[in-house]
């Protein structure tokens, strides 16, 4: 009776760990792409999205990557680029069985002055 529960707990732990790993990778890639955009002074979302995908590489679990960006000037007159990146995590395990854990959609933000 306890074996199915143990398997479910182990699968949930693996799923949670993969989601956290992917969130960390997306955060790193978004920060990197935001810095590149600030250096180039080019807040074009297509260019930023390409930089994020290049940094993530082909083996990430991040699917349906959506990137938005904007540039703004703060109260001190400093321009900045703001980037929001969102994706769905495909862990490859659990599927509908682990849907009770919540959505596997992750979102990160980054901002960099230029």
Write the layout of secondary structure elements.
Layout (H helix, E strand, L loop, with lengths): L1 H39 L4 H12 L5 E12 L5 E11 L15 E9 L1
Helix pairs in contact: 1-2
Characterize this entry briefly:
This protein has helices at 2-40, 45-56, and strands at residues 62-73, 79-89, 105-113.
Order of H and E elements:
HHEEE
How much helix, percentage-wise, in residues? 40-55%
Q: Structural class, please?
A: alpha+beta
Evaluate the radius of gyration.
17 Å
Distance between the first and last residues' Cα: 60 Å
- Strand content is 25-35%
Tell me about the biggest sheet?
3 strands, antiparallel
**Mean pLDDT over the full residue set:** 88
How many separate helices?
2
Number of domains: 1
Record field, number of beta strands? 3
List the uncertain runs. none
The side-by-side strand order for the widest beta sheet comes to 1-2-3
Q: Name the overall outline.
A: elongated
Descriptors:
45% helix, alpha+beta, 2 helices, single chain, 114 residues
What does this structure look like?
The protein has 114 residues and is α+β, with helices and mostly antiparallel strands. The chain has one domain (2-113). The protein contains two helices and three strands. Strands 1-2-3 form a three-stranded antiparallel β-sheet, covered by helices on one side. The N and C termini lie far apart (60 Å).
């Amino acid at each position: 009776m306890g074996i199915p529960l143990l398997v479910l707990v182990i699968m949930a732990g693996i799923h949670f760990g993969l989601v956290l790993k992917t969130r960390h990778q997306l955060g790193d890639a978004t920060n990197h792409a935001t810095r590149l955009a600030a250096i180039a002074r080019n807040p074009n979302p297509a260019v930023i999205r390409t930089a994020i995908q290049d940094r993530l590489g082909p083996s990430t679990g991040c699917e349906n990557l959506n990137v938005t960006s904007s540039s703004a000037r703060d109260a001190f007159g400093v321009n900045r680029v703001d980037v929001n990146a969102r994706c769905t995590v495909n862990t490859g395990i659990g599927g509908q069985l682990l849907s009770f854990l919540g959505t596997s959609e992750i979102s990160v933000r980054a901002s960099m002055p230029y």
